[in-house]
Amino acid sequence: xxxxxxxxxxxxYTIALKGVIVEGDFGKEDEVFDESLGLGLxxxxxxxxVYIYGLYEQNSVEARIKMIGSMEE
Length: 73
What we know:
Organism: Quercus suber (Cork oak)
InterPro entries: PPR_rpt, TPR-like_helical_dom_sf
Number of helices: 4
Largest sheet: none
Structural class: mainly alpha
Radius of gyration: 12 Å
Pfam families: PPR_2 (PF13041)
Number of domains: 1
Protein name: Pentatricopeptide repeat-containing protein
Keywords: Repeat
């Protein structure tokens, strides 16, 4: 996601995450989220909200419960 030497922040990744969810490309949802974590970015409340919404759209109850349990305060 790095373009022309510009390092994306968590806001950029959240927008990308929302984009893949809106498009219904749920396989890429995990890729985008994991890539942001791999860069050391810390998801905020909005990022988690978008990610969990994507899991809801997939009807993935177990994954939602696991994600909510892994979130830090």
